[in-house]
Write a structure and sequence with these properties.
The complex is a heterodimer of chains A (149) and B (256). Chain A is of the alpha+beta class. Chain A has helices spanning 13-18, 53-70, 101-118, 138-141, and strands at 4-7, 27-34, 38-39, 42-51, 75-81, 83-86, 90-98, 121-127, 132-134. In chain B, the strands form 4 sheets. A 5-stranded mixed β-sheet of chain B has the order 10-9-13-11-12, covered by helices on one side. Chain B has a 4-stranded mixed β-sheet with strand order 5-7-6-8, with helices on both faces. In chain B, strands 1-2 form a two-stranded antiparallel ribbon. In chain B, helix 2 (54-64) packs across helix 4 (121-129). The two termini of chain B are 32 Å apart. Classes of the chains: A alpha+beta (149), B alpha/beta (256). The interface between A and B is large, with 39 and 34 residues.
């Protein structure tokens, strides 16, 4: 199984945890990213995730392979959800097992940070006032002929 | 690019600065160079308003000679020819605040290949005083004569390595026509209204192709901050694209 997976179905963290279980592991760390009801002062009602699947898969696997080789861990795995998610749903789950806790915490943090910075997945926020916006791309969303600074 | 682009040699063995001076001498009485520091050199106008970019340079020139109309030219326009400047000068309307070409991509003013009349000086200073350093915004606020774009690539700058690769290919005429599949995701999919399209392009790089698509779809997003993938993996903006390749432009990602 790939270390990184994309899915349009709800994520089962317990099942993901099972993929990194090992008799040599004495510590397990997981991170779940949940859909939250606010962002930068605005009321958020739901989130839509869209991926460039082929490259997201490739880049996600590369990140996990690199971090697994750089830290003293047993195994790492991550699943990212796509599609339209409601409040409280799990958007991403990272799991790491290691002989000792330090490496597990550090590696888990490194995985989520790397995935957020380079894996081609985008997020559209839907707000309580009925509007919606793609996060981090305000310049792209403005009217073409309106010059903004 | 970490180097002085005015010193780049792209045409006729001349640096961009030397070529710019030559072009300007064909249409102007006197030519001055805007400089960041005052080194006491002849025919230079040091920035009098600090490091605030081209608008500060324009204000410095207008302060140096308030009665002059200034033909302002960026130092890095290798595709610009003498006849373009002649068109600008011949079309000038000195009763207005400025005469400029419009951009081929977004129809906005091109402030760094434009004639700034003395009457524009107060707006230039007011903008600087308010901490607004965008010359385009000043031109938009003024009463100007605007000319159609002199050509899609004519006013292309050499800001990045990819710009250079694209421009060199066009100057050498080594760029070829090719069919490229462009796939869009997320906001770009919504803005272009399509998930995928086959584009016939003469661009050498994804950077050139992106500029053409910006114009086609009237996109405001810039390359800065974006990544690009060719055939399913990340690559550089200066990659040479080939017939049949698949290109994806990747706006800032926001997973997790």
């Amino acid at each position: 199984m790939d270390m990184f997976q994309l899915t349009d179905k709800p994520i089962d963290p317990r099942a993901l945890c099972d993929t990194v279980q090992d008799p040599s592991a004495g510590g397990f760390v997981s991170f779940e990213g949940w859909v939250r009801n606010h962002h930068q002062g605005r009321d958020v009602t739901s989130l839509e995730y869209e991926a460039f699947p082929a490259l997201a898969q490739k880049e996600g696997n590369r990140i996990l392979a690199k971090i697994t080789s750089q830290h003293d861990i047993v195994a790492a795995s991550c699943t990212h959800r796509t599609g339209h998610l409601q409040l409280g749903e799990i958007a991403i789950c990272v799991v790491v097992s290691a002989a000792h806790r330090d490496a597990a915490f550090t590696a888990c943090r490194a995985v989520i940070d790397s995935i957020k910075s380079t894996v081609p997945i985008w997020k559209k926020e839907h707000y309580a006032d009925g509007t919606a916006e793609w996060v981090k791309c305000h310049a792209c969303s403005s009217n073409a002929l309106h010059h903004n600074h | 690019m970490g180097s002085d682009k005015s010193e780049l040699i792209l045409r006729n063995g001349l640096t961009q600065k030397e070529r710019g001076i030559k072009l300007l001498e064909s249409v102007c009485d006197q030519v001055f160079i805007s400089t960041s520091e005052d080194k006491g050199e002849e025919n230079t106008i040091p920035d009098a308003f600090g490091s605030v970019g081209p608008l500060g340079a324009i204000a410095s020139a207008q302060q140096a000679d308030p009665d002059a109309a200034w033909l302002v030219l960026a130092c890095d326009l290798p595709m610009l020819e003498q006849d373009h400047l002649q068109t600008l000068v011949d079309s000038r309307d000195s009763t207005l605040d400025a005469t400029y070409f419009t951009s081929s991509t977004d129809n906005l003013p091109e402030p760094l290949c434009a004639i700034w009349e003395p009457s524009s000086a107060s707006a230039v200073r007011a903008a600087l005083d308010n901490g607004k350093n965008c010359p385009r915004s000043v031109l938009i606020s003024l009463d100007c004569k605007f000319l159609p774009s002199p050509g899609f690539w004519t006013l292309t700058n050499t800001n990045t390595e990819a710009d250079l690769v694209e421009i060199r290919a066009r100057l050498n005429q080594s760029n070829t026509v090719k069919k490229i599949t462009v796939t869009y995701f997320a906001q770009l999919r919504e803005l272009t209204g399509t998930h995928s399209e086959v584009i016939e392009t003469d661009s050498e790089t994804p950077a050139g192709l992106f500029e053409q698509l910006r114009a086609k779809h009237q996109l405001t997003c810039k390359r800065k901050g974006m990544m690009v993938a060719v055939n399913g993996d990340f690559t550089n903006w200066s990659h040479s694209i080939s017939d049949g390749e698949e290109v994806v432009f990747i706006p800032p990602v926001a997973g997790g």
